[in-house]
Design brief:
The chain is α/β, with parallel strands linked by helices. It has two domains: 6-203 and 291-317, TIM Barrel; 214-275, no CATH class. It has 16 helices and eleven strands. The strands form two sheets. Strands 1-9-8-6-5-4-3-2 form an eight-stranded parallel beta sheet. α9 (176-184) links the parallel β8 (167-170) and β9. α7 (120-128) packs parallel to α8 and α9 (176-184) packs across α16.
């Protein structure tokens, strides 16, 4: 089943599904698999690592994929944009920071521009900057974001403010019922992260994927704790949604005390990462975890999402009398 939207027409794809550019998770193999399945894969450039980017861009092969960056981090390593643009990505995805310094190079290369936003002021700013697509991210999303707006109240307002620029919905979307709901609220597509983290092609420890499948959205928390222990100085107003564990339970909302304990906590955290111990190490994940019940190939996830979307849209139409 194919659904045609402004997003599918813009990128020439079969399904209105974008892979979220999850840092250290959405590598080249996963991005390529999503693109082959009819969606559009986006490699997660994250905080920027040249060796990692070169390897994952190569892993994507000749599949049409995009690359995403945390914008404030890219500002610290602007040469990485040249590296990525040299591979002629289909799109660049920027979020969390001032994208203006990077737009001339992106436009010159010919890549489409996706800007992710978390409130209406940012929607209007992204439209004014000439974004080809705007991603409206709700607070349900895994990883970093704002706590200000939940997705479904935010989405139709963002669609209205962005028009005629297509808007993509992001935040806790893990099955086709949610895709259908987003489309009916005016979205041109969806950005899916956590559901693709639990895929065979995703980077990440097997223990992390097992924890995803075993967890619920109720188990997640928005916190600064994992940024503090990784010494990442995120701008004010942003937290990371992750599966709660012993570290977050001990240090959540105790930022000052945690910073005083980093001399002992950082080595302990690094050891946990090396061992795949996710009672301490972070697993960023969204509220859609209740709908993530097994690790599947990315293509199977795309197929299931679209089948469920068709079923949900048909059921909705059946309510009309």
């Amino acid at each position: 089943m194919a659904i045609e939207t402004a997003l599918t027409r813009l990128f020439g794809i079969e399904h209105p599904i974008l892979l979220a550019p999850m840092g250290n998770v959405a590598g080249g193999a996963l991005a390529a698999a999503v693109s082959r399945a009819g969606g559009l894969g986006i490699i997660g450039g994250g905080y920027g690592n040249r060796e990692w980017l070169e390897r994952e861009l190569a892993a994507a092969g000749n599949e049409p994929v995009g690359v995403g960056f945390i914008t404030w981090s890219l500002a610290l390593q602007p040469d990485l944009l040249d590296l990525v643009l040299g591979h002629a990505p289909k799109l660049m995805f920027l979020s969390f920071g001032d994208s203006r310094p990077f737009l001339p190079k992106i436009r010159k290369q010919g890549a489409k521009l996706i800007l992710q936003v978390q409130n209406l002021a940012e929607v209007r700013a992204a439209k004014a900057l000439g974004a080809d697509v705007i991603v409206a991210q709700g607070s349900e999303a895994g990883g970093h974001g704002s706590t200000r707006r939940a997705l479904f109240p935010f989405l139709p307002a963002a669609v209205d403010a962005a028009a005629p620029v297509p808007v993509v919905a992001a935040g806790g979307i893990a099955d086709g019922r949610q895709v259908a709901a987003a489309l009916l609220l005016g979205a041109a597509g969806v950005l899916v992260g956590t559901r693709f983290f639990a895929s065979r092609e995703a980077l990440g420890h097997a223990n992390a994927k097992a924890r995803l499948v075993a967890s619920s959205g109720d188990d997640t928390v928005r916190t600064h704790a994992f940024d503090i222990v990784r010494e990442l100085d995120w701008p004010a107003g942003y937290t990371g949604r992750a599966i709660a564990n012993r570290l977050s339970q001990r240090w959540h909302d105790r930022d000052d005390a945690f910073k005083q304990a980093l001399a002992t906590e950082i080595p302990r955290y690094q050891e946990a990462v090396a061992k795949g111990d996710f009672d301490t190490a972070v697993i960023f994940a969204g509220e859609g975890l209740d709908l993530v019940q097994e690790v599947l190939p990315a293509a199977a996830i795309v197929e299931r999402l679209m089948a469920e979307t068709g079923t949900a849209l048909a059921a909705g139409a059946g309510l009309l009398r």
